[in-house]
Write a structure and sequence with these properties.
The structure is a single chain. By secondary structure, this protein is mainly alpha-helical. Helix 1 crosses helix 2.
Length: 77
């Protein structure tokens, strides 16, 4: 009986890790989707010839703004 309880304990532990990983992935997926939406809105009116240059510039700008806001929120705490 004790071995059965130990086995169930480890089974629950593995399930917790597995479901925790899924939740973390889903949270990261929403952040990635937000980033892609911001890029799309910034680049939807750019001509094809300038798209690569503008993409790199806007991507760097969005990342810089997000990091700047994270630093500000960390300093406020």
């Amino acid at each position: 009986m004790i071995t059965y309880l130990k086995m169930k304990y480890f089974e629950w532990k593995v399930k917790k890790m597995f479901y925790g990983t899924i939740v973390t992935f889903m949270n990261n997926q929403t952040e990635i989707l937000d980033l892609l939406q911001n890029l799309y809105t910034a680049l939807k009116d750019v001509p094809v010839d300038e798209l690569q240059k503008e993409f790199v510039n806007k991507f760097a700008e969005i990342i810089h703004n997000e990091q700047f806001h994270e630093v500000l929120t960390i300093k406020k705490i």
